[in-house]
């Protein structure tokens, strides 16, 4: 198996084979939590104007997302697992747009298949990759705003790659180090409204979920996320 590690929107554009679009803080961690809590469907979009249009046409849809970490005006929720703890998501259709993760999904146009990537379902991702049998896998670390590399996304790619190659990584140590780098914002008292501390722990709960999130094309403009459960080994 050829394993490519790519970065940002430009990396997503180059992704081939089975693409794993990684956004640990926080888009694709949040999508796992939303699906686990009963969301019927997630529609990821890159363009916030399309999100507003979908809401206008479908008032029952929930708008979830951010730009530069901040919840967009008129949205129901931001991009925070903590802030959605008590949200009623049962059978809800959610439109999700973010600065990084959903941009990667929109730009992975050459991949044969696209799934999301996060630490909370990393082992499930590895099992899914093995089951699908692709000769080429592209691990795309979306980073900050789809442009700047971040330690958490790079770590997730490294972790997935290591499991595919039957190698060991001290993840407890690596995650602890994130508190001093890209995860530091979650421990800044002045940023708690945007980056609650608990978001760090939600997003680094390794292998909490045994499913992957698969991107399904509906039209040229609209795709949705499908939850694919894996059999317990």
Describe the protein.
Helix 1 packs parallel to helix 4, helix 5 packs across helix 6 and helix 6 (151-164) runs antiparallel to helix 7. The chain is α/β, with parallel strands linked by helices. The protein has a 4-stranded parallel beta sheet. It has a 4-stranded mixed beta sheet with strand order 3-6-4-5, with helices on both faces. It has helices at 8-14, 27-36, 48-57, 101-107, 122-132, 151-164, 171-178, 197-203, and strands at residues 2-7, 18-22, 41-44, 62-67, 70-71, 93-97, 113-117, 136-141, 211-217, 223-229. This is Probable 2-phosphosulfolactate phosphatase. GO terms for molecular function: 2-phosphosulfolactate phosphatase activity; magnesium ion binding; sulfopyruvate decarboxylase activity.
Which labels suit this protein?
233 residues; alpha/beta; 4-stranded parallel β-sheet; 4-stranded mixed β-sheet
Compact summary:
It catalyses: (2R)-O-phospho-3-sulfolactate + H2O = (2R)-3-sulfolactate + phosphate. The protein is built from eight helices and ten strands. It has helices at residues 8-14, 27-36, 48-57, 101-107, 122-132, 151-164, 171-178, 197-203, and strands at residues 2-7, 18-22, 41-44, 62-67, 70-71, 93-97, 113-117, 136-141, 211-217, 223-229.
